[in-house]
Write a structure and sequence with these properties.
The complex is a heterodimer of chains A (294) and B (228). Chain A has 294 residues and is α+β, with helices and mostly antiparallel strands. Chain A is 72% helix and 8% strand. The chains are: A alpha+beta (294), B alpha/beta (228). Bound molecules: adenosine-5'-diphosphate and magnesium ion (MG). The site of magnesium ion has 2 residues of chain B, from helix 1.
Amino acid sequence: MKNNFGYLLKEGIRGIFLHGFMSFAAVCVTVACLLIVGSFSILIYNVNIMVDDLNKTNEILVYVDETLPDAEARSVGTKINTISNVLQAEFVSREDALKSFVEDHQGDEAFSGVDAQDLRHRYVVTLMDNAQMKQTVAELEQIPGVAKINAAYELAEGFTTLQNMLQIVSVAVISVLLVVSLLIISNTVKLAMYDRRDEIAIMKMVGATNAFIRLPFVVEGFTLGMLGAVLAFGAEWLMYDALLANLASIDTLQLFSFVPFKELLLPMIITFTAAGLFVGILGSWTSIRKFMDV
Amino acid sequence: MIEFVDVTKSYSVGTHALRGITMQIEDGEFAFLVGPSGSGKSTIIKLITGELKPTSGTVHVNGYSLERIRKREVPYLRRTVGVVFQDFRLIESKTVYDNVAFVMRAVGAKEHQIRERVPYVLELVGLETKSRRHPTELSGGEQQRLAIARALVNNPSTIIADEPTGNLDPARSLEIMNLLQEINKLGTTLLVVTHEMNLVQQFGNRVIAIDEGLVVSDGMEGYRHYEE
Ligand SMILES: Nc1ncnc2c1ncn2[C@@H]1O[C@H](COP(=O)(O)OP(=O)(O)O)[C@@H](O)[C@H]1O
Ligand SMILES: [Mg+2]
């Protein structure tokens, strides 16, 4: 088997050089496609993190009717918690609210006269799924004793829509590009098989198994795919780091929080390896099937 | 052993290449298969190698039943049957040595086995001094010797040759036939397709004559019938 492995590897690599230009073109197209695939994956990853962060700070303020006695005001919280989408409901008394209000506006004379009795007790509610914010707010409004609700659901919905659209576009782009690289690798391998059709015919004649005949071509497709993946991975890394450096100098407000590439290392390695394997092995396997059945 | 029982083969409606062939070739035998062009000789060979399936009847080759052989068993059948063609079918980009070594690798032979076996078969066919040449640098007779070495190298129990001398002059043809006789004496079953009767007559072998898809004579005197 050791001998055979060496032979298969050698034959596979030989095929690549036999069609130097075609192989070069295949690797280039694969690199280009995988670069875009990788970029979209990174974009989705970052947007998801940003949206999650924003959602975490996207709290709903539920104000309690000021005419309710304190004990009843606190029982409103129990009712809030029975709503299934509510992750957490934190009670903030009017005294606490005033304290943080004053702290926020320290030294501002205009607010020095505010009295706790002017404010309402409130609950700071965070949700499990912000996409459902509108429905949840409607449920919250039904609770007796709730005077007013402050919720920025347009913002939450906007982010969710953006996230969904981006995901759909990405899946479409990624699929198309994977198919493109699949086709070009498949064609390169087909060319290699066409070139060696005499050898294949003789191998079949003397009783080589189909698997044995196929393997060098799978090795060839695999090598092309992995070569494309490795180059694309390196290019992605360099480009992403350059982008972050540029962004840091422009985005002084830190509006965007992109994850450094080092944190993406594992998911990116998995993405590129999977894409390279998929494109390389499937690309050669399909072309071989067609060829062998003739 | 090769055994055909009442074998017919139709390519499409109207072309009945074989119309009921029954014959048996024992292990170690040397048989000629003769017949005019279009009589069904190549069809018989394709049935033996599993390239085609019979329309009806049974074909047994070295323990395999060809009428119901599975696709993945075909390679193993083919390892028992070496084939030689009129047009040699050599790989021009490979040396003489590699043309032979290649088919050993194709069935998973180890490198040390290849190093031992290839020089042996090249010597058997008389090409030991030309192992580094390419097929285009060889004469027709030498190319056919190479094809025979290649058919022989995986040690099949049977060798089938389809018009092996069709492209050669009479002297080279005789050499090739003598070589095939020698290989048969080493224990390999030989079935040689030809339509060169004068060549067949120089050997005292069994002759199976077919015409229009039927066996018309079979035996040591078979060719006489065919000539009539
Ligand atoms: N692939 C094919 N399709 C249709 N008819 C074929 C095919 N191969 C051979 N035949 C026909 O079958 C008959 C026998 O052919 P073949 O076995 O090649 O004869 P031979 O080898 O004796 O010259 C001929 O009439 C030939 O035209
Ligand atoms: Mg023929």
